[in-house]
Amino acid sequence: MQGIFDSNTAAKPAVEASGTNGAIGLQASSDTGTAIGASGRIGISTSSKNGVGIAAYNIGQGMGVRATSDDGWGVNAQSKTGIGVLGVSDQNVGVQGICQEGDNFGVSGTGANAGIAAFNLNNSNAAYLASVCCAAWFTGGVTVTGKLLKGGGGFRIDHPMDPDKKFLSHSFVESPDMKNVYDGTVTADKKGMAVIQLPKWFDSINSDFRYQLTAIGGSAPDLHISQEIKNNRFTVAGGKPGMKICWQVTGIRKDKWAEANRITVEENKNPNEHGYYLHPELYHAIHKGIANLRHKPVETSNHSGSE
After folding, report:
1. Under a CB-based contact definition with an 8 Å cutoff, are residues 107 and 117 in contact?
2. Among residues 151, 167, 193, which one ends one of the domains?
3. How confident is the model at residue 115 (pLDDT cuts 50, 70, 90)?
């Protein structure tokens, strides 16, 4: 059954409630149905000065908050010092927002620390979107099943020699191909030869091989690849007995995902994006960002529960 349900087509709230001095403005619970159902131009609109605009908890298999709207806001919640919307679910979805048409968003959040913060009850994974530091901050691993396009990238760690005060960063190695890099060292036998054994899955994901060899400790003008990769191994010859040899092999990915999703090295912009840039600040055109075309900001509102 439903806890509270009301609808209104006039310019006044269907349900209005307020609480002061730490009290709760509106509280409803339901064991099997909907705790609060509201329809109108704005489904639910709340404000809080020092608490939570909307807090919804679900210990079953449903959702903490679910709101839909045809032309307004599903949920509009504002909080000055707390949380605008807090959704907690043990088994399903904390907050669900749906926008089927137009340039608006299913969920839009604005905050001085982060626009949207998401946490997992079962581990330490967290995501902060529109964060103070950057567009997104992830605590924990990140899995991307599709393509990941970026202006640049690398790793950043606490500096091994001064972890208290410094970071250490390296750039990724990149190429126009879906290239894999493998390397290692091997010691030549009495005949100046060596067999390099590659992983058993090597042939199944790589093609178009390239080789590099470097002799350590002396010259080896005859050092060469005597047998190319076959059955996940290749052979080096022409070295000196006992010589240490560094090798490198690169291959182009040929797995099913790579074959179906080859990188387009050069790509034309859409006609409506001509004169707009991924990094407009570098072209002295700060207002000409492609992001401004593709992701129009949602209009904000100061609606409160007193409307």
Report:
1. no
2. 151
3. confident
